[in-house]
Design a protein that fits this description.
Length: 300
């Protein structure tokens, strides 16, 4: 059911700002599920900003239903689940003077409206034969698997959410399942990125930019992301995997460098930390000097 009383523009803007402030960078997600977010019943794909808003929710399947649709399917929404808005344009007639000829076509203007949907993971009782199953022929790559298998002092691995992240407070590394990635190489490139992050934990390399849990956009956060991306590239080269979008990694690094371009120590420091991280993951016993954190380097 469409709604119109709220400021839809502001609601959408606030959602996007919250995602950005929370560190969600959509173009760094080389995994997918059912393609574009779509309605389970109509099979129609959502369009415009809805693609961004729905895909950013992190569900394993981007299939959505309205409240009435899930009821019609014999299911229900789980208690406590919150809906996500879908916005659309509705054309309405513009009031014209009483003198307008009755046979003249009335002018129209678009008004932004919205309705609410739920992901199928928020529902229960939907017949399984109504939910399509999508799998991708992504196979494990042994050279990459051996790195993960042989890494010393590993974090706890899990595949509970459709998000890739490392959580220092619990020492948990979460990854989407490999079949949700566009290719096997993309899965391992993302996994390597998170593995490099986990080396910064106090019980491993005790990297200050990770340990202090710095805010998104800060110098330390940018440095840590740069270290993880460079380290991922090192590990990809070590295993010999070739990705079709390596240019995206270069663009990603350049994006962070733009934030740090006034710091001439940045790339040298980040590269050194990335090397120490990959040496740790590969269990290479080398005595490499610990990079000087930025705050200490300024006093040297």
């Amino acid at each position: 059911m469409e709604k119109a009383n709220l400021d839809v523009y502001q609601i959408v803007t606030d959602k996007i700002i919250a995602l950005l402030e929370g560190g969600t960078i959509p173009w760094r997600k080389p995994w997918t599920d059912a393609g574009l977010p779509r309605n389970l019943v109509s099979k129609k794909a959502y369009r415009g900003v809805n693609v961004f808003l729905l895909a950013s929710l992190g569900y394993k399947q981007n299939l959505f239903v309205t409240f009435d649709q899930v009821k019609a399917l014999g299911g229900s929404v789980k208690k406590g689940e919150k809906s996500q808005m879908v916005v659309f344009w509705k054309w309405i007639d513009v009031k014209t003077p009483d003198t307008t000829p009755p046979d003249e076509k009335k002018p129209q203007k678009p008004i932004l409206r919205y309705y609410n949907v739920f992901n199928i993971a928020q529902c229960e009782g939907i017949p399984q034969d109504q939910i399509p199953v999508l799998t991708r022929p992504n196979e494990p790559i042994e050279a990459c698997e051996s790195i993960v298998r042989d890494m010393p002092n590993k974090p706890t691995f899990q595949h509970h959410e459709n998000e890739a992240y490392y959580e220092p407070s619990t020492d948990i590394l979460n990854m989407p399942d490999i079949e949700y990635f566009v290719e096997s190489e993309a899965y391992y490139a993302t996994l390597f990125h998170e593995l490099v992050h986990c080396t910064g934990h106090q019980k491993r390399l005790d990297r200050i930019d990770l340990v202090e849990n710095t805010r998104f956009g800060s110098y330390e956060y940018s440095t840590e992301e740069l270290v993880a991306e460079i380290g991922s590239c090192y590990l990809q080269s070590f295993t010999g995997i070739v990705r079709n979008d390596m240019a995206n990694s270069a663009a990603y690094i350049q994006g962070w460098l733009a934030k740090l371009k006034n710091d001439k120590r940045c790339i040298i420091n980040a590269s050194g930390q990335a090397q120490r991280a990959t040496d740790y993951i590969l269990n290479i016993q080398k005595e490499t000097p610990k990079p000087i954190p930025q705050r200490e380097a300024e006093t040297v």
